[in-house]
Amino acid sequence: MKAVIQRVNYSKLKIGGEVHSEIEKGLMILLGITHNDTINDIRWLSNKIINLRIFNDGDGIMNYSVKDINGDIQVVSQFTLHAQTKKGNRPSYIEAAKGEVAENYYNLFVDEMTNMFNKKIKTGKFGSDMQIDFENDGPVTIIIDSKKKV
Fold first, then answer.
1. CA dist., res. 82 & res. 93, Å (int)
2. Is 80 a catalytic residue?
């Protein structure tokens, strides 16, 4: 499971030109699910993200988590995070989980995040063509792969 975590001032996600979800200061997370992910990946990654200290304290030091600042979280499915680009110019998505499996794990991830965060997690719509307008704060962008814990 891979996540691209972006510290944002806002994020607005549209589907078909209509706003589907939006957040203010917090984290916009792109989530890629692979065929060998497990519930342990979901739990580990959720915990890591919720407690990731990437928000500034009064001294400008990244010392606070999204929980500490009472920020918002938006999670968007992104199978292209598992693109393989070693051969040719057309990426292969063979490592990405198939639709039904990926959607189930995406929903489990959102549920786990909601339980840990105690606040509604905003989402995209799995499998939809989405447009996201956001302002990266910092910019701060962090990539976490649950298969690379050590």
1. 6
2. yes
Residue 149: per-residue pLDDT? 80
* Number of CB atoms found within 10 A of residue 37's CB: 21
Q: Is residue 54 a part of any domain in this protein?
A: yes
CA nearest neighbour of 27 among 49, 48, 6, 44: 6
Closest to 107 (Cα-Cα) out of 65, 60, 21, 46: 46
Please check whether residue 56 lies inside any domain of the structure: yes
CATH number, domain containing residue 32: 3.50.80.10
| Contact residues for 60 (Cβ-Cβ < 8 A; gap 6+) | none
Name the catalytic one among 80, 85, 123, 141. Answer: 80
Q: Identify the pLDDT of residue 99.
A: 84
Q: What's the whole-model pTM score?
A: 0.93
User: Tell me, what's the pLDDT at 74?
Assistant: 98
| Total domains in the fold of the chain | 1
Residues of the chain with pLDDT under 50: none
Contact 29, 132 (CB under 8 A): no
